[in-house]
């Protein structure tokens, strides 16, 4: 089986000096490899193709066969690292807590220990504002709210 750390090392070398980064690498039985990428600006299919070709040039399929998928971490995927939180400051997010409750609001800050989310609600003509600091230890996952307005 191809080593996940070896793949990570090669992909990070390929992405060095760019604003692209690895979100996750999984290696499942049968050498099914998935590499999820993100960027501080945008990720293109050409970026994914370049990483795919780089991996294929380093890990010979004749030595060990594998199935490789390289893609962007989609908008429907939860944030997995601080860099994704920072990139998405200003966006509407759903924060699901470890107890299953959900807090929806605008992501306004993120640091190594916690995120800060702000929301304004209106119930019966009464507006309320709430800012909540949420430690990562309390977060099950955070996803961007997809809106078609």
CATH class of the largest domain: Alpha Beta
CATH topology of the largest domain: GMP Synthetase, Chain A, domain 3
Shape: elongated
Helix content estimate: 10-25%
Chain-averaged pLDDT: 94
Provide an overview of this structure:
By secondary structure, this protein is of the alpha+beta class. The protein folds into two domains: 4-72, GMP Synthetase, Chain A, domain 3; 82-144, SH3 type barrels, CATH 2.30.30. It contains three helices and eight strands, in the order αββαβαβββββ. A five-stranded antiparallel sheet has the order 7-6-5-4-8. The mean pLDDT is 94.
Question: Can you give me a brief rundown of this structure?
Answer:
This protein is α+β, with helices and mostly antiparallel strands and 149 residues long.
Spell out the blueprint of helices and strands:
Layout: H1 4-15, E1 20-28, E2 32-39, H2 45-58, E3 67-72, H3 82-87, E4 92-97, E5 102-110, E6 114-123, E7 126-135, E8 139-144
Parallel strand pairs: 2-3
Antiparallel strand pairs: 1-2, 4-5, 4-8, 5-6, 6-7
Helix pairs in contact: 1-2
Which features would summarize this protein structure in a list?
43% strand; 149 residues; SH3 type barrels; 2 domains; 21% helix; elongated; alpha+beta; 3 helices; 5-stranded antiparallel beta sheet; GMP Synthetase, Chain A, domain 3
């Amino acid at each position: 089986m191809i080593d996940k750390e070896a793949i990570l090392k090669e992909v990070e070398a390929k992405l060095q000096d760019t604003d692209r980064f690895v979100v996750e690498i999984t290696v499942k039985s049968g050498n099914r490899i998935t590499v999820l990428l993100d960027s501080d600006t945008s990720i293109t299919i050409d970026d994914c193709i370049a990483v795919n070709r780089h991996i294929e040039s380093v890990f010979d399929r004749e030595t060990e066969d594998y199935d490789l998928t390289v893609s962007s971490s989609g908008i429907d995927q939860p944030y997995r690292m601080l860099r994704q939180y920072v990139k998405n400051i200003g966006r509407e997010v759903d924060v699901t807590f470890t107890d299953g409750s959900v807090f929806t609001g605008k992501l306004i800050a993120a640091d190594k220990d916690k995120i800060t989310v702000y929301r304004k609600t209106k119930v019966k003509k009464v507006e309320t504002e709430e800012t909540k600091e949420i430690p990562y230890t309390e977060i099950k996952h955070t996803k961007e709210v997809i809106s078609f307005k």
